[in-house]
Amino acid sequence: MDVTSYYKLLARIHDYLKPRTYTEIGVRNGSSLTLARWSLSIGVDPALEIREPIDRRTQLYPMTSDQFFQEIDVKKALAGQPVDVAFLDGMHLFEYALRDFIHLERHCARESIILVHDCLPVDRITSTRERKTQVWTGDVWKLVICLKKYRPDLRIATVDVAPSGLAILGNLDPSSDLLQSRYASLCQEFVPLDYSFLEPDKEAKLNRIPGNWEAIAASLPSRPYQERPPRPSNRRARSHSRLKMGLKVASRHPGKVLSRALFRRTRARPKALGVLLCYNDADILGEAIEWLLQNNHDLIAWDHGSDDGTAEVLDQYSQALVERRFIPRDFDFYKLYDAMSTNLIENYIHKYDWISWPDQDEFLEGPSRDMTYFEYISELFRYSFNCVRFNNFNFWFTPGDNPTIASPVKRVRRYSLFPGCSPRMRCWRASVTNIREFNHNPVSGTRFPINFNLRHYPMRSHEQMLKRLYKDRKDIERGGHNVHYNNMMKKAVDRLLIAQQSLHYDDGRSELNPEVCFDWTKIYF
Fold first, then answer.
1. Residue 421 three-state SS
2. Which segments of 248-372 does DSSP mark as H helices, in order?
3. Which pTM was predicted?
């Protein structure tokens, strides 16, 4: 069976080899790093933007690869083991790729492999040293030419997979210093090398092999590095390992090294304040309040002119609210976030350590369910992270829901990740509170590099959906905001219904599935 893309090939290699250890240079949003399901892993990138759930044993280093290899004891980070599999997808220039290979090979074993992206260039314009196109592979391909000439001992195969190939480098020699000793002269020789060198016979010069698994497997070690290890049984150990994904070496921030005083831990748990702006979501509001109370938050609630029983729900929790206001419906909705932000800055940020501000139909969680949301933010508070962004898991009613269950959270169990929505910035250190713009805009300071999760329940029944569209959110669009409600009203109602088999099922215990199984743009746009 043919493998058609480099990402699918990476996944197949991980499943086939089950590396004990894995190192990735050039992590970006974490989509390829998340494939390392069985490995003690390292990810290096000076501009981390993790949007995918990462394995609990992964260590992230927000720095350049040169800085990483200079400052970090790789052997210690990998518990004394060599790198089994490495993936290079960093700066798309020959000299960077060569340095990364030199550094990585020292930490490998003879049977290890190094995978290099962008080694089968598409054409001249996308393979220039200066980026001129959206798709850019740079001159990484020169690494294959260089290694063929000066390291004939290596086993080199470049797999023809979209978009620009993946080289497999094997038979490594961690004791070799030939490339390091000749680095300057190699740069002088290969940096000026023109793309015309590849023409003709590009495939032979780059050791191209087809994306056929039999051909690929012949270039890999013959047996897996390990069998899949069991999950740790200690819940607390799992949760702290999860946090180490971002905390272990995140004292070094992209572009500079933060002082250790800034990264100093404290022993205190944060005094947390939850904020709710309420309008006509009485059916789920009680559960949203309970969720924040269970996670040790004091609460502020402003009711923006609800007429559906929201007031009665707030009456039930009057003793738990540090502030409650009724805001007339004629108060401009687009000034409401500004008003609440000003209220927090003037009256609360000196009294509290952490602010959590979900929408009234959202439930905040950590990056996994190993710990409670409050336990996770308590860990972040002990370090010097100021804020968290959330993955938006959209929950939607389906014909399979049991109508006899009153609780929307217990009734509506079907969901899918909505990766294309506006960034959800839902919690931050109280001292950096600013004027919020629908809680999408950033705050100052260091953001935790891994997204937390939130469960969003916008449509909980057919009747509630129609009421939300044609009454509660009618004519709310302004200046490009909230256009999705008008878009949805233009569609036939049956186009807003989702079959239960199209979504994942949440049993309330298992981790939320990050695989996108439904295209939400069909609903919203």
1. coil
2. 282-294, 310-316, 336-347
3. 0.59
